[in-house]
Amino acid sequence: MDIIKQYIIQCFYSASNTLRLNTQQIEVLAQLKEVILNSTDIQRDIESMKKITELSRLGIKFGELYRYLTNSSIDFSKFSEKFKEHSQYLVRETTILLNQVNPQTCKVILKKIGSAGAEEPNEIKIDLSNRPDSTPAFEKQTNQELKENLILGDEKDDDDIFFHNFEAEILAPIKSLDSFLKKMNENNYQAEELNRFISIIQKNGEKSVKIGFEIIANMHRILLKALVLIKSRELMPGKDVVESMRACLIVIAAVVRGKEVEITNYLNRAEEFGRKILTTNYRNV
């Protein structure tokens, strides 16, 4: 990953960690992170952000980070202090953005990046749906108590939530899949069980894509790929693999339930695991 994009993303997420976020706000953060990751010209895209009303404040701050990294003589002895400073002054702009948009409106706004202020209307656009791995079959922190509560805890019904049925379907297999992963770690499972969970995760992942929940869809994509690789014996369900898969479950549960808890470590672990299994050909990793 480009060091500039990595620095901006880490500052942005560090700022957001000081906020108490709901499900939709976490989704907005993920959408913006993906745009930054996919940027082929981060300087141009930051300039585009400055010309978009909802993103202008954040774009200005990102521009300051960009200039610091490209135009300054960096004192690495004070790099950590500078990072904290940069993260702090992103908090206000991050809060303003999250209060202005939801996942649906943010997706529309982010598509303007790269085209705002361009001489030709269709010069460059970033399409958030252009994910690196998508096939027809959908194949293509530390706190242990928090982990267990998020996965195993019962959730009360809330008929006022618009996506209640979707949420209920997504959460339904979490507890049983967690138990199954533990059995896999002990090599004590049946092929029929594995096939059943592959089918469930594929179905729920496809629903997540249709609804537009990028984080939830990506966690299902990672889980599905891992289960398929385990079935073909290309991936051994050892402790590290199982814990990485459980990290996916924790992220799904936290995002769907809107838990106001710190899940960055779990999200990072799940995404790193996903990068390995979605982009690498290997056996018995």
What report would you give on this structure?
α3 runs antiparallel to α4 (56-71). It is built from 14 helices and no strands. It is elongated and about 55 Å long. Helix content is 65%, strand content 0%. The chain has 2 domains: 3-110, no CATH class; 144-279, Four Helix Bundle (Hemerythrin (Met), subunit A), CATH 1.20.120. It is mainly alpha-helical.
Count of DSSP helices? 14
How many individual domains? Answer: 2
User: What is the CATH architecture term of the largest domain?
Assistant: Up-down Bundle
Unreliable runs, pLDDT <50, ≥5 residues? Answer: 116-143, 155-163
Pattern of helices and strands: HHHHHHHHHHHHHH
Number of DSSP strand runs:
0
How far apart, in Å, are the first and last alpha carbons? 22 Å
Strand content: under 5%
As a percent range, the share of helical residues equals 55-70%
- Characterize the overall form: elongated
| Average pLDDT | 78
The major β-sheet equals: none
Rg calculated over all Cα atoms: 20 Å
- Please state the structural category: mainly alpha
Write the CATH fold name of the largest domain: Four Helix Bundle (Hemerythrin (Met), subunit A)
